Amino acid sequence: MYKIMIAEDEDQIRIGLKKTIEEVIGGFKVVAEAANGKDALDQLHKTSPDILITDIRMPEMNGIETIRRVRDNFPSLYIIIVSGYGDFEYAKMAIKYQVAEYLLKPVNRVELAEVLQSIKRNLDAGNMSSNEHELTDEMKEGRHAIRKVKDIVMQNMAEDISLQRVAAQVNLTPHYLSVLFKTVSGQNYSDFVTDSRMIKAKQLLKETNLKIHEIANMTGYVSAKHFMNVFKQRVGTTPSDYRNHGS
């Protein structure tokens, strides 16, 4: 599981980001939080996260200066900016310091999920490349199987993607796949499926005029009521409210 640090001076936004990352998106752990740039630098040295999510305007040391110093000390760290300002100068700064993404507040959960999943794929690829010579054949096959499983889930969201069905497609027993998936990805298979369905549902709610029951069917839920219950539990609001008001 990859580690994230959040630098944001507004408590409500910082808490909301952490909840979204850990409870909605999944697959990541927020290991440190900071309310200003100075504290952020101190925490970075102590926790060594893989990803930094930072605001631009913070007390004591602003985000721009923080990012400049971060790049000097942590050249490979992935940085995501969240800001209420779509200023051109900030955009130029983001390019200069190789920021992974610049997200405007209020942060759209679907966009954040897509950015984090993209970074995760890059981190996975980097780890596999650097550690490939240390892996046994069995471990290599296991990682390959999990990549295939994730592809099956993403490409067949509306179909039966139960653990039993998918295990049969990759020639593994359900129990072994369950253990392997948790070991390799740090997440339960069922949680991955639900999170993937919620991300897809949020995208459809925002980008289409499809009815709720149609989105439910497209994301693998036979019952619209069940879909709405899961959505409310995972996202914290109803599908209709999410469509009308956003995250």
TrEMBL record:
Highest taxon, organism lineage: Bacteria
Domain HTH araC/xylS-type stretches: 147-245
Subcellular location(s) per record: Cytoplasm
Single Gene Ontology MF annotation: DNA-binding transcription factor activity
InterPro entries referenced in this protein's UniProt entry, alphabetically: CheY-like_superfamily, Homeodomain-like_sf, HptR, HTH_AraC, HTH_AraC-typ_CS, Sig_transdc_resp-reg_receiver, Tscrpt_reg_AraC-type_HTH
Coiled-coil residue windows: none
One term under GO cellular component: cytoplasm
Example GO BP: phosphorelay signal transduction system
Primary subcellular site in the record, as a coarse category: cytoplasm
Modified residues (4-aspartylphosphate): 55
PANTHER family per UniProt: HISTIDINE KINASE-RELATED (PTHR42713), TRANSCRIPTIONAL REGULATORY PROTEIN HPTR (PTHR42713:SF3)
Name the record gives this protein: Response regulator
Native species: Paenibacillus thalictri
